[in-house]
Amino acid sequence: MNIYFSCSITGGRKDQPDYERLVNALMEDGHIVPTAHLADADILSLEKVVKPQEVYHRDVEWVTHCNILVAEVSTPSHGVGYEIALAESLGKPVFCCYREGSVVSKMILGNTSPGFRVFAYKNIDEAIREVRVFLKSLPGL
After folding, report:
1. Across 65-138, where does the E strand assignment appear?
2. Model's pTM, two decimal places?
3. What are the φ and ψ backbone dihedral angles of 129, each rounded to 5 degrees?
């Protein structure tokens, strides 16, 4: 399955180790994650050389061609919100997870659309288990 992974970059990187564990688990399960580099500790230096228009066009293309979007939303991010809305508008399933106690937008928490799942986790292992359950529940994917 082609999975677009979305997480905060410029909004803060304190959850980077969780991003990395989640992406690694998805790839170990055999999924393609074109945005795996977003989980890298040095992403800020990697993305510094890419122009905003290039990021926009690249990321829209990736969202358009993914089967599902998985977002870690513990740290607020304009880009993550945009990607979630884009994926949902394209009819893509969306899985959002966040660390318990994080302040998450009510636009995310209140979404009850079919194919949209929000999960609060105590540790990243819980999020990994839950995203696997979500992926298995998707018909035809």
Report:
1. 68-72, 94-99, 116-121
2. 0.93
3. -60, -45
Domain layout of the chain by residue ranges:
3-136
Structure tokens at 77: 């991010």
Task: Name the CATH code of domain 3-136 (choices 2.40.50.580, 1.10.287.380, 3.40.50.880, 3.40.50.450).
Answer: 3.40.50.450
Tens digits of pLDDT across the chain (141 residues): 999 999 988 777 688 899 999 999 999 999 999 999 888 777 766 666 789 999 999 999 999 999 999 999 999 999 999 999 999 999 999 999 999 999 999 999 999 999 999 999 999 999 999 999 999 999 876
Residue pair 84/6 in contact (Cβ under 8 Å)? The answer is yes
